[in-house]
Here is the input.
Amino acid sequence: MIKPLKSLYLNKQFFIVLFSLAVLFVVSYFFQELFGVAKLLFYLLLVFLIFDIFLLYRNKTGIQAQRILPEKLSNGDDNSIEIKVVNRFQFKTSVKIIDELPIQWQIRDFKIEAILNASEEKKFTYQVRPTERGEYHFGNLNIFSSTVLGLVARKQQFSAEAMVPNYPSFLQLKKYDFIAFTNRLKLFGLKKIRRIGHTMEFEQIKDYTSGDDVRNINWKATAKRNSLMVNQFQDEKSQPVYSVIDKGRVMKMPFNQLSLLDYAINATLVISNIVLKKHDKAGMFTFSRKVEDRVIAQRRSAQMHLILETLYNVETDFSESDFSRLYVDVKRHIKQRSLLLLFTNFETMDALHRQLSYLQAINKTHLLVVIFFENTELKSFMHKKATTTHQVFEKTIAEKFIYEKKLIVNELHKYGIQSILTAPENLTVNTINKYLEIKARGLL
Here is the structure.
């Protein structure tokens, strides 16, 4: 009998009834004729309480529950978690589901309430949005079941402890993998750029698939096979494309709960996939005090898996990034002219000028694109109406910083360095557009 009591909880309804009886007993002190009624109601409450407990513990199985987790979480995206609950009681049951979520989310009031008919099975799905890469540990799954009376609840705890790794946004990768090769690019912010000045060589004749250029239809082969056939071409030479991620302290700044570093990591994963699909070589590395996490640009089948696993372990070291070390490493290890997509952040012209000589030196032998971020919080602050002198002063300072970002773009352009100034949430789309533009113009 001790074991069931450990899992027995008194519901709010019980305390409401008990409080009402207590009030009735107090009133009966002044009106003696009510004392017998109060006493009778108290005994009835005890009977209903015992009956309620009997119903809940008569069936040993009670409620069965299972949490269904994905193999891995996608950072910065909404991920679905599913809970399956089966009512083994032979009566309608109220259930309250309390899931012990990972500590990273700091959610302590999560619960799902529902009513299940006898022998009914239900699936409940909820969304979680992780914002830190790493391991997410789920605890136990707790189910509180009650009868129609609702006086007490039986707690059942299911040992569902599990660890799920949170990887860079592979959901975003799948999304852009699809749209980058369809004719609906504009719906997702991608520009359709006409390719100029390129040289292509014939590769093979293949069956027509959705997204192929209709101008490449081979009518002779189509007539022979009685199905649409197209000529497939490829670039004369695959070009190396490196994503270079600054993991210094400037990339730790958070926007919408996600750090600039994680925005850059998610964009790197997507652009690497696009690069490989476009028959170029994808690679990456990070730098701060030294160059690390190097993946040589190649087109092998396991390249995306290698890049994903490398990105999973990238962390900032909160140091001042050494651009001189970056220049020396690029000169020593990257011999073939390559496209370097440098994810970093410059807040002021002074910050740019300290590194400009190294950026110029890199741009002499490679095609460098400097990608840095708008401060979206300052932009939203600018649109607020200033009513006091202090607010006018703050708004002026905000305008100065925003204008300085535009000056940085002009300064880079003056020295022949391409750049992208983007809001963090538009980073992936703008990076893809720049890569497609470079391919179309034959700059590499």
Remarks:
- Residues 389-414 form the longest helix (26 residues).
- The radius of gyration is 32 Å.
- The CA atoms of residues 281 and 300 lie 9 Å apart.
